[in-house]
Amino acid sequence: MKAKSLPPGPGSHNMLNNLRALRTNVPVYLQEIARRYGDIAYLRIGRQRIILLNHPDFIRDVLVTHNRKFAKGRGMKFIKKVIGNGLLASEGEFHLRQRRMMQPLFHKKRIAAFAGMMADTAAGFQVAWRNREAVDMADEMMKLTLTIAGKALFSVDIRDECEEIGQALDTAMRLFPRMMMPAGGLLFRLPLPETRAFNRAIARMETTIQRMIAERRTQDNPPDDVLTLLLNARDEQGSDQMTGRQIRDEVITLLLAGHETTAIALTWTWFLLATHPHVEERLHAELAHVLDGRLPTAEDLPALTCTYNILRESMRLYPPAYVIARRALSAHEIGGYLIPENATVLMSQYVMHRDARFFREPDFFLPERWDEPEMQDLPRFAYFPFGGGPRVCIGEAFALQESMLILATLAQRWRFRLASDQPVDILPRVTLRPRYGMRMIPELRVHKGSALLV
Ligand code: HEM
User: Fold this and answer.
1) Per-residue pLDDT for the chain (454 aa), expressed as one digit of tens each?
2) How far is residue 415's CA from residue 283's CA, in Å, rounded to a whole number?
3) Is there a contact between 118 and 148 (Cβ–Cβ < 8 Å)?
């Protein structure tokens, strides 16, 4: 390909500044660059060349049109240490084969069959809460979605293991920003306390999962859940099954990819509802009208339009996956500029979702915007919380159903207010966590005679 020029941007100027800013607040720094340089920008950190794409057409070019020219980003090497070669990390033909084998697990009907379990688990979960006694909703949502993921995957209540798996994840995620810095890979070769803690955490999680797989293999009447489906999955020729190692990798991938993102979406949603009581009122009115005090089902979801808009808007402002990274396998051209071979291409949901060209008053929480006619013309990649193209999130429908059922179940019984001493800020790690957790005060809305009182 004939060399064009690199896009405009800070390039390798201010390399230290780039490094510092990326370490502390990736999405906000990317937003600054987008504002200064426009639809495509170039920066450099160490030997890493980074191209930031800030236009829906350019993002489509990478995720859809020329997706075969790109592999997953450098960060995946680290994430692989946790999830192995599961669906999120695998590449090429192998990924395609796994995706085809696993797609049936996410069929609409299968997901709808989990609805009762999701609402029941949410209803059962809240019995531990006391009126006006603060709880950390970030922790609570993490435990709730992990419990639901455990039930969908293995049909067992892994609440007891939650603490352990949660801690393992936390240890891993804390290392992530350091891993992403130049020479970050060295971390794993040094006998640092963090590295040892990380390896211990992964080993603990692995033991739990291996135990569950081993138990399932000897069961006479296995339950109809994701693990059984994985153990029986065949490729298109009906011959090849997954190896034990691959099943372990897929299970860990689904457990991790599936619970943390959903928990974070819900945590930010509770925060936004607490700080926008007029929206909360509209939500309560819809729930009273559609559900009248009973637990929600999969059939109720199409009628819960306000609930859905609230979630969409929450994931617009606080997209749990706030940036997608790819590595250019060969030189490529976008918008008349050169994307060099091996360059990292970043596409940030956080940046695009707050772009005033596509969203009026982009920093405001306005769920009703999703009913406006002009939103019909929103370009596909102006809003992409679940990514897009062949690697679009396989759990999108699962996550939306789960979040709506949890929101509808809990909001019928409680409203949450932010604890008075609770600071709020983002903590961009692999996902967009709340930096200081989210301590909230639950206030009972329904007292007696309600099906929600479990
Ligand atoms: C609000 C919740 C969720 C969000 C925001 C989210 C976001 C995403 C995004 C942005 C990607 C694409 C990453 C890329 O292109 O590099 C992705 C992929 C993936 N997600 Fe999700 N996700 C969510 C929930 C789930 C759930 C519930 C599951 C599983 C039950 C799941 C499993 C996966 C898997 C396996 C992939 C890799 C797909 C592939 O490459 O073929 N996610 N997710």
Assistant:
1) 555 899 999 876 666 666 666 667 899 999 999 999 999 999 998 888 999 999 999 999 999 999 999 999 888 877 887 788 999 999 999 999 999 999 988 999 999 999 999 999 999 999 999 999 999 999 999 999 999 998 998 887 877 666 666 676 677 666 666 665 555 666 666 677 777 877 887 787 788 888 888 888 888 888 888 898 888 887 666 666 788 888 989 998 998 888 899 999 999 999 999 999 999 999 999 999 999 999 999 999 999 999 999 999 999 999 999 999 999 999 999 999 999 999 999 999 999 999 999 999 999 999 999 999 999 999 999 999 999 999 999 999 999 999 999 999 999 999 999 999 999 999 988 899 999 999 999 999 975 545 455 4
2) 11
3) yes
Backbone angles phi, psi at 324, to 5 degrees: -115, 135
Instruction: Indicate which atom in ligand 1 lies nearest the CA of residue 390.
Output: 41
Residue nearest to atom 2 of ligand 1 (CA): 262
Using only C-alpha atoms, the chain has a radius of gyration, in whole angstroms, of 22
Cα(328) to centroid(ligand 1), Å: 21
Q: Ligand 1 centroid vs 19 CA: distance in angstroms? A: 27
Tokens of 414: 């409680």
Ligand 1 binding pocket (C-beta < 6 A) is 87-88, 99, 253-254, 257-258, 261-262, 265, 320-321, 324, 385-387, 391, 393-395, 398-399
Nearest to 250 by CA among 232, 230, 225: 230
Residue 38's nearest CA partner among 424, 292, 372, 337 is 337
The pick from 261, 266, 344, 432 for probing ligand 1's pocket by mutation, whose C-beta has the most ligand atoms within 8 angstroms, reads 261
Q: Which atom of ligand 1 is nearest to the CA of 265?
A: 1
* 99 CA → ligand 1 middle, Å: 12
With H, G, I as helix, E, B as strand and everything else as coil, classify residue 247: helix
| 320 CA: nearest ligand 1 atom | 5
The pTM of the full predicted model, rounded to 2 decimals, is 0.93
Question: CA 286 to CA 375: how far, in whole Å?
Answer: 22
Give distance in angstroms: CA of 241 to centre of ligand 1.
Answer: 23
Fold annotation for 1-84+326-366: 3.30.43
Atom of ligand 1 nearest to the CA of 88: 37
